[in-house]
């Protein structure tokens, strides 16, 4: 008998029919012999409705009171889902965050879980009940209600799975798993049976927005097997787990798991900077101070004692970064500042890279064969990213997907 | 500096504008030098909306889960009202029932308050904050969420006032106080400055539905001065307090405080019953067993060894009571069973009756002068009730109101 934590998000419980559908699904898991703990979000739309009410009350709504207000959303869902389960002959009981309790720090609106006491839940599970827990919420040691921030229900589910030592944490979403790339760009994209936590983190941060990064980190830290499934469509989804679990069938493990890409990229260049120690900090320090996140960085040393810096930021940050750079350029006596927001980033992700060479060269060769110019290159242990012109995005992803036989 | 508990019901917090209006009113009380604790209900309509959702989930919704569901209603209100107060520069903090905590027994949907711990509230009040408490809800010692039943926010307010040893408990409603009678029947009806708990209980149970009976009983038990006020209209409302508080100006205290009446009355008669010991029980026992509440009872002894029984019930209960009576009549060999649902009950209420005679005779004289026939009479220490024909209701109430100079 396996103990499973299942998480259903706002869309999955968005109306009466959806909640009934979830109840049927949970009841099925139980009838298959599993012990089930469910974490749910507020019904979709509810958070926006409550936020709108708050904004009519207070120009900058109190974060403490906002947490009191928003946590009613999941409280409604846990009660309704418990009722729907009982109606299906499946004993069920609801718990709010404070009832569990899920203890957090006191940072309202983005609290962090400090401790989950699994005792009450496990006692109910042992009695044959499904325990329906409110996601996204917790309580401080002083008894104040907190929220984990938007989308925090994933984190609740993973933290519950860790605390209860569950066999698996299943995240039900509107997609049926993690794909080799975006099927809207490559119709042949295939669902991955499994990926490692590290791969998932690279894929998620690069735009495959299936899971919250934080919950994947959490799952990785506590070694909780995580499965992404569709709440609408049957299927095994994608299992996210440690690399160890791949050892058995390493031969079958593909070199590359997936291709992520991001259109929200802009490039800034500061050219002809006198090449002295500390110049990188003088350029990038003020950018960071303005809370602009820098992604890739390249420095080209010139022959004339000057150097060129190129780095990428989100498109929204390009203008403010450009203004800061112009000030710096004057200060440092740099030649020119340029910006370009017609670039994209493509990343190939795979733990197989660790032990296999030649992936980068295959990637570059494939792009060259398609006349796609690489503007920047960045690598990590399990990822190679390139920056290219936006119009080449589709062709690049499609040809790489084919070259690495991800459709096989 | 007075400590006041103010209660606002669902209509008073029914939308954004109403909540803002309540916030302005509470802030005014604070600016007048009072310490204020507020108890609020769910926004009107919210309970019905949630109940409808529950009914779609489960044919007979679980009472435990129903309490989890419904208590979100007040939780939304406390957060919004706290925000609105803060926006007015009035420091405020919200507490749910479990946060106070308001400890109840574990009878879901109609729990009784066992204990209120006032410590947290008083600490916040001492810091100059308005504390906004969710009405209608509590928590068991096991940490389960409970509700006090519909309209239970009045009880929360009175219980809070008792626990905090508040100077006054103010119940804001859609009427501006307790009247000498229904102003729709007697336009000259006057608002009472004060009534005693006992009078209020008689007036409330007889149809002047301003306050929950239970909260008046509670206030009486703990000697909490209770004031009924309008949340829309300025004015001192009606103070409900002990008889002791009237002693000082007993001379001014009217004999009669008010005239209550009820149209929901039906009369049943069983005639020609052999007059033997135990016959009253034989007749009324089966009626009570059928959960039919009997109000007034009269027994007339006949000359022929037979007796007639007359009693009143709610109009809804007349048919079932009639059927039961017919069975009994056959059994006992009674002559006839009659019913009449065109009757009403009028009750004159006043603690002054205790020390003054002649009130009943003035009442009967007034009715006689207006050709109104009295069918039944019942009295308590502070009340005289008569049953008359429904068509005479308005004339009777108007003429009694005038005869006892209640409009003066």
From TrEMBL, chains A, B:
This is Aspartokinase. It catalyses: L-aspartate + ATP = 4-phospho-L-aspartate + ADP. It comes from the Bacteria. The keyword ATP-binding applies. Belongs to the aspartokinase family. It comes from Thiomicrorhabdus immobilis. The keyword Amino-acid biosynthesis applies. Its EC number is 2.7.2.4.
